[in-house]
Amino acid sequence: LCLLPFTGPSSYKVGTMAEKFDCHYCRDPLQGKKYVQKDGHYCCLRCFDKFCANTCAECRKPIGADSKELHYKNRYWHETCFHCYKCHRPLANETFVAKDNKILCNKCTTREDSPKCKGCFKPIVAGDQNVEYKGTVWHKDCFTCSHCNQVIGTGSFFPKGENFYCVTCHEAKFAKHCVKCNKAITSGGITYQDQPWHADCFVCVTCSKKLAGQRFTAVEDQYYCVDCYKNFVAKKCAGCKNPITGFGKGSSVVAYEGQSWHDYCFHCKKCSVNLANKRFVFHEEQVYCPDCAKKL
C-alpha cells in the first residue's frame, strides 16, 4: 500500500516577480507578474506549462504551476485525476495499490484478487458466505439446483456432470424407486430379480424380518424367511411329516397324487428301498417297489 505526497516548493518555486527579470524561454519581462523558478531559471506560467510542466498520466494535460501535483514512480497526476481505476474514488489522501500500471483503492484491490463466483461471476470477498466444490466456488445464494433453481446453499446436493441437484429433484429425476413403497432409494437399496427395494421394505411377509443377506423363499410374489416358510407355507412330507423347504438336504422333491415327499423319504413301504427316480407302485396311499407290490 502507498500514500502519495504532493510535490511542492522542493521542486519549483512560484511567486510574483518584484525585480527586473525576463522569462528564460520567451524573454517577456516578469516584473509584477507570476513566475516559476525551477532549476535556477525564471519563467512565466505559460512557458512553464509548455516547457517544464509534467504531463498528467490520467488526462494527458500539463500539470500547471498552480495545480497540486502527485507523483509515483516517475508518473504524475493532477490531484483530481488521481482516482481508482475501477470505482473512480479519489485517492489523493488515501492509501492505494498500483497493479499492472493501474491505480486501485483497497476495496477494489480486494475484489480484483478475490475468486470469482461460478454463478454470478462477481468476486467473493471476505465475509461472503460461499460454497466450494472441487476447486470451484459460488456465493451461497448463487449455488442453486439445476432443475428447480432453488438455492441449495450449504445443504445436501448431488452432482451430475456440470449440474447440481437438490435432494428432492435428484430423487425425482434420477433415483430408483422401491417396488414396494414407491419412494426413492437414496442409499442402502437392494435388487432382487432386477427390481429395486429399500432394505427396510424387503422383509418376510409373515414376521417382517429383513431378508437382505438372508435365505428366503418367494411364493407367488410373497417373500418368506426360512422359519416362516417352514411353519406356514411349505408342504409336509408324506413320509417324515416335516416341512419340505427346498433348503439343504432333501432339496429334491417327489410329488404324486397331491402328496409330496423328500427324495430321501420316498422309499418302499415294505423293503425300504429308495424309489426316487425309479419305478414304483402307489397302493392305498402307500408306495411300493414293483417286487413288493406283486406280493400284496
UniProtKB/TrEMBL annotation:
GO CC, alphabetical: cytoplasm
Cell division recorded as keyword: no
A Pfam short name: LIM
Single GO biological process annotation from the record: cell differentiation
UniProt keyword 4Fe-4S, yes or no: no
Gene Ontology molecular-function annotations: transmembrane transporter binding; zinc ion binding
Ranges that cross the membrane: none
LIM zinc-binding domain location: 54-114, 115-176, 177-234, 235-296
CDD domains noted in UniProt: LIM1_FHL1, LIM2_FHL1, LIM3_FHL1, LIM4_FHL1
Domain of life of the source: Eukaryota
Predominant cellular place of this UniProt entry's protein: cytoplasm
Cited SMART domains: LIM
InterPro entries per record: Fhl1, Znf_LIM
Compartments in which it is found: Cytoplasm
PROSITE patterns per the UniProt record, alphabetical: LIM_DOMAIN_1 (PS00478), LIM_DOMAIN_2 (PS50023)
Keywords for this protein: Acetylation, Cytoplasm, Developmental protein, Differentiation, Isopeptide bond, LIM domain, Metal-binding, Repeat, Ubl conjugation, Zinc, Zinc-finger
Function: May have an involvement in muscle development or hypertrophy. Isoform 2 binds to RBP-J and plays a negative regulatory role in the RBP-J-mediated transcription in mammalian systems.
Record-given protein name: Four and a half LIM domains protein 1
Naturally occurring in which organism (per UniProt): Loxodonta africana
Lineage: Eukaryota, Metazoa, Chordata, Craniata, Vertebrata
